[in-house]
Design goal:
The chain folds into two domains: 193 residues, no CATH class; 141 residues, Sandwich (Immunoglobulin-like), CATH 2.60.40. It contains nine helices and eleven strands. A hairpin with a 4-residue loop joins strand 3 and strand 4. With 369 residues, it is of the alpha+beta class. Strands 3, 4, 7, 8, 10 and 11 form a six-stranded antiparallel sheet that branches. The protein is elongated and about 95 Å long.
Length: 369
């Protein structure tokens, strides 16, 4: 199973021209999981086969010889199995796709079942990290004692050390099995409740199991909001770092007639979470990147002195989701880093980190582009 997962992850990341940090973490997580699982399997096979051989021997000398061999094999394999499994658990916790990020996202969503699933996965990963760390330390101690003991025959030393290593492995495997069940159960519960906006729209539509009895106009507005909502990404355009805004249902030719508004905040200090109103500077740094009749694409210049860890950007976009409709929608985006990320989309947020709400709303029109 772990080998299949590694193959799938490898095929996925190999198809990408540039690896992002999340891709690197996913790759190494799958790699360490596969190596750790393989070493644990090899250890299990060795323990089973040699244990059977020990029972078949009638002489004490033969049993001691095989038990010592078992101790040496277990001593050679177990530390590496534990350390690779610990690293796999650690890489599974961190990164944008890790259990810690899923827990944070679930907490923000307010979905109790989703949060429970994410919490189970996070506890499972952290306990796996602690368990394998403990097993590595204890096995290392037993191996060290086996190598440094000089007042006994070497075979007897490894017999004793082997029994200690087998005891550690048995406990680690038993507890690890329970934690794996916790992780899988949490992942299932998280995925079951991690529905996209489109999933929720379908479920509550006329053909869904939770029909909300919305009118056709309401259904149309919601679908437009989901499938054609604005997007913001950080990327390099013509060797320039930019924050790129895409608004699918608006063209540059229509810009003066659609009342497309923007409000922005600039992060000035990470530690104090200080933000300042930044609507006007944003507006004057916008460049038109799309043709007149193509979906609107605007690029905000990010200058070299701005693209560092001390600055961030929060943007609120106000627009009509459907042409001719008078209702407005707002979409909020936020990033605490301005380094170009190969077109990676920023996640929409429900609430901005900025304590201020005084940034003015300004209409974007052709005069600014």
């Amino acid at each position: 199973m772990q080998t299949i997962n590694f193959y799938q992850v490898f095929i996925e990341v190999r198809s990408k021209a540039v690896w992002e940090s999340a891709d690197t973490l996913s790759f190494f997580n799958a790699l360490f999981s596969t190596v750790g699982g393989g070493l644990a399997a090899a250890q299990g096979i060795a323990i089973t086969s040699l244990s059977v051989g020990i029972k078949n021997y009638t002489s004490a000398a033969g049993k001691i010889k095989l038990a010592a061999k078992l101790g040496k094999i277990t001593g050679a394999l177990s530390p590496f199995a534990y350390i690779f499994s610990a690293v796999a658990a650690g890489t599974g916790m961190y990164g944008e796709k890790g259990s810690a990020a899923k827990w944070t996202e679930a907490l923000r969503s307010g979905n109790g079942s989703k949060l429970t699933g994410a919490s189970m996965t996070l506890v499972g990963d952290s306990e796996q990290l602690a368990l394998n760390g403990w097993a590595f330390a204890r096995s290392g101690q037993s191996i060290y004692e086996a190598f440094t003991t000089v007042n006994q025959a070497r075979a007897l030393v490894w017999v004793k050390g082997g029994s200690q290593l087998l005891s550690i492995a048995a406990r680690a495997n038993l507890i690890g099995l329970v934690l794996t069940g916790l992780q899988l159960g949490g992942e299932w519960l998280y995925n079951r409740n991690n529905k996209s906006d489109l999933d929720n729209w379908l479920q509550k539509g006329p053909w869904g199991k939770q029909n909300a009895n919305r009118t056709f106009i309401e259904e149309r507005l919601l679908l437009a909001y989901i499938t054609a909502s604005p997007q913001v990404s950080l990327q390099t355009v013509n060797n320039k770092a930019m924050a790129v805004l895409r608004i699918p249902r608006i063209t540059a030719r229509e810009l003066n007639d659609v009342e497309f508004g923007v409000s922005a905040y600039w992060l000035t200090n990470h530690q104090r979470n200080d933000w300042e109103a930044w609507s006007e500077p944003l507006l004057y740094q916008l460049n038109l990147l799309s043709a007149p009749d193509e979906p609107l694409k605007l690029g905000m210049d990010i200058f070299q002195h701005e693209a560092n860890a001390e600055h961030g950007l929060a943007v609120v976009l106000r627009y009509h989701p459907v042409a001719g409709d008078k209702s407005f929608r707002e979409k909020r985006f936020e990033t605490t880093t301005l380094s170009a990320q190969n077109g990676k989309l920023l996640s929409a947020v429900s609430v901005l980190k900025s304590r201020k709400t005084d940034a003015p709303w300004l209409l974007v029109n052709s005069d600014f582009l």
